[in-house]
Amino acid sequence: MERDQTEELRALQDTLYFIGGKWRIPVINAICNGNRRFREIERSIPGITTRMLSKELKDMELNKLVKRTVYPDTPVLIEYEPTEYCRTFGKIISEMINWGREHRRVIVEQKEF
Fold it and tell me: What is the number of domains present in the chain?
């Protein structure tokens, strides 16, 4: 079967655009690890600003990755949860974590020689 390199490039560019930011994957990881409220998510990601987290969550909601639920309590409670579509990205994140661990191990071993 012949591969369509143009289509593959487009798919890679779409993926890189999606994960290209510094914060997208840490936010997905935080939400998939059970952090549901804004402050929980924010605390679980060192260095992210409130403004950046808000921007990322809005963008992720528009891209059908996060479901935002508002509970009209006093004070208003807002929770975020990953969509099933977002969870399909979990395998990719897991592989990226594994690759990163292995890469770090390879680099550290090279420095020892």
Answer: 1
CATH code where residue 71 lies: 1.10.10.10
Residue 66 burial class via C-beta count within 10 angstroms: exposed 0-12, middle 13-18, buried 19 and up: buried
**The two structure tokens encoding residue 74:** 């006093």
| Cα(43)–Cα(96) distance, integer angstroms | 22
Could you tell me where the beta strands, DSSP code E, fall in 8-99?
A: 66-71, 77-82
| Tens of pLDDT, residue by residue, the chain (113 residues) | 788 999 999 998 888 887 878 899 999 999 989 999 999 999 999 999 999 999 999 999 998 999 999 999 888 899 999 999 988 888 888 898 899 999 999 998 887 65
Model's pTM, two decimal places? 0.78
